[in-house]
Design goal:
single chain, 2 helices, three-stranded antiparallel β-sheet
Length: 132
């Protein structure tokens, strides 16, 4: 089972170097992944990500996050989702209400179709860029 902890940090853009703020839409501030292997050979992966959205382009890219997996080999579960506003407020969202699983649609144009290829789409409401 793969568990994803996602934290969106919307802090002031002024904390970044000027060159990064001018050219980037999103900055990955922190990405920690840990893997726990069980005695039976199964494993759990936890991924904790912190992003800073800098402008409207970054806002559009982060509104819906697609996460791909193959249901024949494992599952994907989002266990935490929160937004940290520039004033320090933390808004906790329900990842179950904001996610949906569907068949990977990019494979429809190919001759090989695997119904186990899935995508979990996580919709993140209430985002604002740090410059707004």
């Amino acid at each position: 089972m793969k568990i994803l902890l996602l934290l969106l940090s919307l802090l002031l853009a002024g904390l970044l170097p000027a060159a990064a703020a001018e050219s980037a839409a999103i900055v990955l501030l922190d990405d920690r992944e840990s893997v726990t292997v069980n005695p039976d050979g199964t494993f759990e992966t936890t991924d904790h990500c912190v992003y800073r959205i800098l402008n409207y382009d970054g806002l559009m890219k982060m509104r819906v996050l697609p996460m791909h997996f193959n249901s024949s080999y494992g599952t994907l579960q989002v266990t935490g989702l929160s937004i940290t506003k520039s004033d320090g407020r933390v808004i906790t969202l329900d990842p179950v209400k904001n996610s949906s699983v569907s068949t990977e649609n990019s494979q429809f144009s190919s001759e090989i179709f695997d119904p186990a290829q899935k995508v979990l789409s996580l919709t993140i409401p209430g985002l604002r860029s740090a410059t707004r």
